[in-house]
Amino acid sequence: MEKKSPHILNASSNLLGFSLIIITSLKITKISHNTYLDEFAGLACLLFACSCFFSFLAIRTKEEKRESRFETIADYLFLIALFCIVLAVIIVTVRII
């Protein structure tokens, strides 16, 4: 089975930065109190950070069973965080239109 941990780590760290940019821009424009956008982006930040952590642990561990478990956790956290980002994009789109 191909190892996904390096890919998860790379994508999670990039999307973590994207989520932080969303939160920062919401705070600068002072529209964060009108929507749930900052809550979804904040949750996505936490989940992407945890996904980065578990994918890093999967890369660094020597035990095959533990590596697989960490990779699976990172994968699911990444998927949930991606869903939060999609919700944030939907909120932005509805707000703009």
Any chance you could write out the topology, listing elements then pairs?
Blueprint: H1 5-29, H2 37-60, H3 64-96
Transmembrane segments: 7-28, 40-61, 73-96
Keywords: Membrane, Transmembrane, Transmembrane helix
Short description:
This protein has 97 residues and is mainly alpha-helical. It has helices at residues 5-29, 37-60, 64-96.
DSSP summary, beta strand count: 0
The main sheet comes to:
none
Distance between the termini: 44 Å
Kindly estimate the percentage of residues that lie in beta strands according to DSSP.
Answer: under 5%
Total discrete domains: 1
The helix tally amounts to: 3
**Global mean pLDDT:** 88
Q: Looking at the chains present, what oligomeric state does this protein adopt?
A: single chain
Shape: elongated
Helix content: over 70%
Return the structural class: mainly alpha
Runs with pLDDT <50, length 5+?
none
SSE order, one letter for each helix or strand: HHH
Keywords: Membrane, Transmembrane, Transmembrane helix
Transmembrane segments: 7-28, 40-61, 73-96
Describe the structure.
- The chain has helices spanning 5-29, 37-60, 64-96.
- The chain is an all-alpha fold and 97 residues long.
- It has one domain.
- α1 (5-29) packs antiparallel against α2, α1 (5-29) runs parallel beside α3 (64-96) and α2 runs antiparallel to α3.
- The longest helix has 33 residues, at 64-96.
- The radius of gyration is 15 Å and the shape is elongated.
- The mean pLDDT is 88.
- Keywords: Membrane, Transmembrane, Transmembrane helix.
- The chain crosses the membrane at residues 7-28, 40-61, 73-96.
